[in-house]
Amino acid sequence: MNKVILLGIDGLKPSQITELHMPNLYRILKAGTSFSNHHSVFPTVTRVNTVSMLTGCYPGNHGLVGNTMVIKDYDESLVVPALKPQIELVNEKIKSILLVPNVVDILSNYGMRFAAVNIGSSGNAYLHNQNLSDNGIVIHPEFTIPNTLYPEIISRFGEWPDKSQNDEARLKYAMKLFTYHVLDELNPEISMFWCNNPDSVQHYSPLGSDLSYKALSIVDSQIGELQKYMQTSGRDDLNIMIVSDHGYSTIKGVVDIDGFVKSKLFRAIKFEEEILVAPNGGSVLFYVNPYNRNTVNTLVDYLINQSWCGNLFASHEQGPIEGTIDVAKVGLNGIREPDLAMSFRWSNEFNKNNVGGAVYSSSGSIGDGQHGSIGPTEHRSVFIGYGPDFKEKNVVVNPTGNIDIAPTIFELLGIEVNIDFDGRIIKEGLINRNTISPSIKKESYHATRTSGMILYEQVLEVFVSDGSVYIDDARVF
Ligand SMILES: [Zn+2]
To answer: What total of structural domains would you count in the chain?
Structure first.
């Protein structure tokens, strides 16, 4: 049986994989199967997408609907950031922050193992094995699961290098740990490496700048180290799946959304309720506590009058909200669905380095990079498969998404899992599988609303393939 390496490259855009800037990754892309129509889930932020990869579910179903969010079954009056300390508190009270099993939980049933090295956020790493299964090892610069592993790592490999501008030293250390310790010594069925760049660098520098190219080349050289390991060790049992959680846009304006909403709507709402605002970079989740339909309508009227307002998705549990599209159409429905989710407005504008895709943002600086919105430069992401089970020199143009990663991993491991994933097995990229192409249809949703002189009009188009849904286009007019 072959094994799987999941290599996550945070914030990598498909267009950034060029022979000039990422020669190692470019060679893998050309040699294996590249999925040229791959999609993130919305909001296009890291933890939401990583959890979708590792559970095979939309955010509404797995329960982590934002990097910051209200966890209604935990505390309806609190906006929680998904970082390790907060996740641990949530887990203590409600058993698990995730509503479905992730790959570690599933593997445990088969006596198989998962091991990850992750130099991204503590919350992202912790969510790989938040139930602390014995079958899952997680290594992060600040902690390990199990925590007894941490001193052993330090004594064998030395202290973690400090964080730096592009984290070159950290990345080298992490890749050494990954090849020596995880692949060679632990040799789990699923191994995972999560690289925080180019995301970290792009958050404080323009796309297409020298700094961002340098970050790409540092990441690429470590991909080269991984390739070297695979060649010199003679491992021919490793399928490698290279993914990014989301793409990137350039910030065209910064909006203090919490301050704005609270100051403008203070008088419009009753004193006994509160609008909770959870900013997620290029998108915002809103919660009205306790729920009041009139307040949601007031909020929608306020938002559609703003130049930065993009697509609006609302909970339609208590009936449709005019002008909004049901959160279920973007996979955000479930017990933790936001009452309203707004993508900031995106456009095709180019930045000063001629990189396309611009968006308003709840944080950061104008001209620097951002993500989180439903714009195409953010929801289109990277997926490449390479190894014994993937077709060689192959391009799959059918829509695929981060929700397909877990079901495809289990297919590669030869496990028939009795779980109703939202994603599908991407058989069209694999050898010796039924190659009948899945049927693909397009669905479109349209909503309008008038407020004063403003006519707000939005559209959402999705691909539906084998029951899986991928965002194709979403815009306001
Ligand atoms: Zn980011």
So the answer is: 2
Q: Are residues 73 and 117 in the same domain?
A: yes
Backbone angles phi, psi at 253, to 5 degrees: -170, 145
Q: Are residues 456 and 421 in the same domain?
A: no
Question: In this structure, what token pair is assigned to residue 242?
Answer: 């290279």
- Rounded to the nearest angstrom, the distance between the alpha carbon of 392 and the centre of ligand 1 is 32
pLDDT at position 315, please? 95
How far is Cα 222 from Cα 21, in angstroms, rounded to an integer? 13
Q: Between 258 and 436, whose confidence is greater?
A: 258
Determine, yes or no, domain membership for 357. no
Domain carrying residue 261: 251-349+441-476
pLDDT at 15 over 90: yes
**pLDDT per residue as tens digits for the range 305-358:** 999 999 999 999 889 999 999 999 999 999 999 999 999 999 999 999 999 999
240 and 135 in one domain?
A: yes
How many angstroms separate the first and last alpha carbons of the chain?
A: 51
As a whole number, mean pLDDT of residues 8-26 equals: 97
Same-domain check for residues 267 and 153: no
How many helices (H) and strands (E) the chain has is answered by: 14, 25
- Distance of CA 372 from the midpoint of ligand 1 (Å): 8
pTM of the shown model: 0.96
Going from the Cα of 23 to the center of ligand 1, the distance in angstroms, rounded, reads 24
Q: What distance in angstroms lies between residue 448's CA and the mean position of ligand 1's atoms?
A: 31
Please give the helix or strand (H or E) that residue 59 lies within, else none: helix 59-62
313 CA from centroid of ligand 1 (Å) = 22
